[in-house]
Q: What sequence folds into this?
């Protein structure tokens, strides 16, 4: 086992699923440092894929092997991240970029001795929060992230993130730990102890109050991001249960139905306790929502027909 590699903890999940809170909780542990989002692991994994493809095609195999590629990629990432950790005297570094989850299956191959944490939140809450982020960006005169532009884009991105995280957990169940956001909020000590057991570190009560400490990742995600994703008060908060059901009041009836239909067939989400039956909608809202969803579907199909005819 590489002790260098073993110092890295990769966090990931759909944006707005609780990755920031989880990062700040871990940052309260005396052995774990949480820094600003590194952001570029998906790009680096894309480069890794291109290099390995060139090796497989016999284009650069005289220069390097697939194993050489992975070694150089590993050196690149650890060079960035562990140099930062060493500067702060940290035993472990947790790297929290939500989109890490999209490359978890490949990161597990490159970093087989590292630990991975996939945080999962009710997709309805995640989509609702992404739509709020999109609205906030527009109010500030900024273009929203592609996955925060509308409900369909948000659903697609959340679906991709969840599918990749669940795939990594299937491939390497001993290396990937799944955290359910709602359980973390309702019982942070029990969930925190489970996380510590997975990481092989001792539980510390300070992890219950991540809002009591300034974290190195704050400026990048608040001021430097024009407070679209977080303001300082929200970023520096402790686990709170009062926003768990907020999505019920912010999502329109048709949006609730769209999200429910998109994730209703997920066996992994069902096992984690999520129920997507629309019990919170009255008959009128269900009818209106179904009609709106039907209209979206009709437009999508008509658009496909027109595109095929245009060819």
A:
């Amino acid at each position: 086992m590489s002790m260098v590699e073993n110092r890295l903890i990769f966090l990931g999940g759909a944006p707005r699923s609780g990755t920031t809170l989880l990062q700040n909780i871990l940052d309260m542990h005396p052995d774990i440092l949480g820094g600003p989002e590194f952001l570029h692991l998906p790009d680096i994994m894309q480069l890794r894929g291109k290099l390995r493809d060139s090796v497989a095609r016999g284009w650069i195999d005289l220069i390097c092997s697939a194993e050489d590629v992975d070694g150089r990629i590993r050196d690149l990432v650890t060079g960035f991240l562990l140099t930062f950790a060493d500067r702060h005297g940290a035993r472990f570094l947790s790297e929290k970029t939500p989109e890490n989850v999209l490359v978890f299956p490949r990161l597990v191959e490159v970093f087989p001795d590292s630990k991975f944490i996939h945080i999962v939140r009710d997709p309805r809450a995640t989509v609702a929060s992404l739509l709020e982020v999109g609205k906030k960006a527009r109010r500030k005169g900024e273009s929203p992230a592609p996955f925060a532009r509308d409900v369909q884009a948000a659903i697609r991105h959340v679906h991709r993130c969840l599918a990749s995280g669940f795939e990594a957990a299937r491939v390497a169940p001993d290396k990937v730990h799944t955290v359910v956001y709602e359980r973390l909020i309702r019982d942070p000590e029990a969930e925190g102890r489970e996380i510590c057991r997975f990481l092989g570190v001792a539980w510390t009560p300070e992890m219950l109050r991540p809002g009591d400490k300034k974290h190195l990742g704050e400026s990048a995600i608040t001021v430097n991001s024009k407070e679209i994703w977080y303001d300082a008060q929200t970023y520096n908060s402790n686990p709170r249960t009062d926003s768990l059901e907020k999505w019920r009041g912010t999502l329109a009836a048709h949006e609730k139905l769209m999200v429910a239909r998109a994730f209703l067939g997920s066996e992994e989400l069902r096992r984690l306790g999520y129920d997507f039956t629309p019990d919170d909608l009255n008959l009128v809202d269900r009818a209106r929502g179904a009609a709106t969803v039907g209209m979206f579907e009709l437009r999508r199909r008509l658009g496909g027909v027109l595109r095929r005819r245009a060819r």
